[in-house]
Structures
1.
Amino acid sequence: MSKLFDGINYVLATSITRERRDITSSRVTHSVSEDELERPGTPTNRNTMRISTDMHKILTGSPQISAIVNTTPANVPILTSRNLEGYIVITQQDMYQHVFLHFVEQGLDYQFMIGVITEYTRSLHFNHVTVDPSLYQLLISYLVRNDKYYQLHQMLQYHVVSDSAHVACQLLSLESRYPPAYQLALDMFKRLNTDEEILEVLLAKKQIIPALRFLRSHRNLQYSTGRILDVAFEVGDPTLFFTTYKFFESRREIRGQECAEAVMHFQKLFVTSEPSSRFNK
């Protein structure tokens, strides 16, 4: 399995590298001569040819993979491309759509599936190819579906699953089933330096005090003062609303039409003697 994926991703990596080199060359108006390109018969291509032979042996020798290959519908169109040496380039989307999703339809053992996807992503890393988030999302789905939360936690903690906004959002959706997923998502957003998303998550959870602390430590963050005040008011805690209002007042940020409603609520609650029905139910 390792040789199979390493062969596939080696060809993919060399194709990506060549595309980047061609783009760079075109930008500096420098045309690459044919002598500068890798030719069949060089050590690199002999290595690829050897890997391709190993791939054929694995495909024909593994009962589980052979069963899947032999049951693939003949009418499924698989679009392939070839590099300059004639090797088929199999992209991550090809693997996801025509291999992994087909595994799902076949209902293979989840341990086998988790092992296959993990090995494929390892091979991508080995060949310096950025892993598509959809592969990680599929892996997490398998782990959650089979209640393998400890294994999921370990993979995230040791960065077997790379950070991405897609994965972080998926972790947020798992909070009801696995509460630590919420903190794992926040930690991932922090590593990605996506401060706006962290603030949105805190506001969505109505964690006003942590949100204010976050704002205090991130002064260049873009946010809506009126929206935060509205969320604080919706919580239904007068003390919390007072604290939030005074926080922004000290920063001289309560101004404009967006804060008009919050100012009105504050006047009714703390300036006039008229009690607010909003907090006296």
2.
Amino acid sequence: MNCIQVAYLEAVLVETVKAERLHRCIVVAVQRQDTIVPDQPPFLANAEIDEWLENIDLLSTTYKNFVIISGRGGPIEKEEIRAQVRHLKKIARQMERLAAKNALPEMTEDLIPKLLGDLSFPEENYEKYALRLRAGLYQYYSRQYHHQNTFDLSEIEEKQE
């Protein structure tokens, strides 16, 4: 049977709709955060990287014969999923290294150029993506390792203006 399948993984709701002239099913994963963001830094402020990686594994194994649609880039290839996994694992390793040094959250700023260098995106997006990482890395590190109260993300945006 040809179908379009929409999976709301967080709510564990799967809805199937019949469609004509489709050779395979299409899966759209909708969660609190974008699961796969091809060639963009991930949203980290409220992230739980271990759970995120588990969700990607679930998506990759449960729906391995499906076309996966990213909310931020349309259909994605298996390599883009693997790249997201590598990028998230790299971020987690970098956070662990900072934590081992008992670094302050502000030190996450130093990770931004290298993390952005791993991605391929239009140059005009650099500042926007750097800001996303600056806020996300700071929030993530503070929550996971430094155990200080995090501040509203708008404070970082105000500093940038």
3.
Amino acid sequence: MDHVKPKRLSEILGLTTQRVGQLSKAGVIPPSTPKGYPLDRSVQGYIKFIQGRGDGKEKEQERWTRLKADLSELQLKKLEGSLIPAADVYQVAFSKSRTVRDALLNIPARVSSILSAESDPFKVETILSKEIRQGLEDLTGKKDAGKRKKNLQRSI
């Protein structure tokens, strides 16, 4: 097996001596021995390294093609109405969260006078459970909000 000094290997590969050292540290070509670099394994390692990199232009073209396809798909989804802007989703979620918070915070004001007269813990729990359930159903639109007061008075 022939061995060559770093300067000669750099001339064969068309690289600088410093780049040969970097490739050796990276494991692309075998490390140097006291005799120098093993010529055949060094050249083979460098060839595999170059082949693995591929043509940068081809890779960039593939990337560009994928990006254009992704963009086209997003535009189609937007036209179909199946794509919603994130800002709109955030606004609706924020609004719904505020409504839930407000509804839950209003429960004590709505039931405090009724509960203050109630001494039976089971009735207190029943009234609170119904009020919370009705408040949540109002948020989902399952029940008419006007029925809440009638149902609350019926439970007493």
4.
Amino acid sequence: MRSRRIPICRSGAFTHRLAERDERPEARRLLLFTAFNLLILFAGCSVCDSSVQAPPRAARFASARRKTHNLDAQPALPFSFVYDGLVSEKLLPDWTRRHEVMALDRVRTQHVFHWTDRKTGLEIRCIAVAYDDCPVVEWTVYFKNKDTRISGGRRNDLETMRRAVPLLRSDFQLRGMAGVVEGNQGHTYGLSFWLPFQGTGVYSYEAYSYRSFYLPSFGMGRLTSDSTAAQQKAYAECRTVAPMMLQGDDYPRTPYCLKSDQWIGWPFNRPEQGDGVAQAFRRKDCAEQTMVFRLKGLDPAARYEVVSFDAEDSEMVSGRNLIEKGLNVKINDKPGAAVTVYRRLNGWGCERDANV
């Protein structure tokens, strides 16, 4: 009989292929004898000592994944980055770490690694999907600026703000924090160029303090019998100011500064509605008692009613005067704050109303 090398196949394919090669009776007897011995051999393997038994397929792949794809408790990462001048190998050991494991189906297991830096709010999430029937792992890494309140609003990046609003722009707001009032003046000054809607809260009940926190979204904490009057006054004022800050054009009239011997202030003007607000702050070491704010976006031919929150009476001023000569703001207290609102009277031009 002519011999051939025939590959061993699954199930009945082995018998079928040998039968195709030779149909003689002696060949069939040889085939049955060979198959019987193979069955005995395979059955014997199942009762062999475990020290010589080959590991199950899934166990072999799991071991390969741990060595090759770094799914141990302390994995050697498949990615790296540089953040604030430091490489990830030095940063991540000091960050908060969490590891989650979940079975996706019969052959897939998902590992999720989280690292979070509380100082900056940066979160890294690495998702690895391992396959039990194949020594392969799929990696995906995500970077997320999770806590936008940190760093005085500097974490409110524009990409995030396209999909969200900062109801609490920063957690720098508690009474007793050094420079918290002037710091929030600076927040409003800088962030208003980019974020019309923003929010914060205040825990101080002096006018200089709570007026420094006025925003489209505003809140006060720790309501007590002693703070009720201050909170009622603050909410009433902010209810008037907030729409102008949200919808108005921002025209800062002083340089940005956190020094205690300076003024800082800004107007918001709504040309369509014909109104606006000017907010001004005299800090504790500032010698100047008066500041002039030349307003923009007004109709020079119109007349405006100007009202200070600290005065009982209003005054009528032409738009041209407010543009060219400016709005005089006087603050006697150090520190002190002034909020002034204005609105256009009787249409666009004063010549339209002979009584004005």
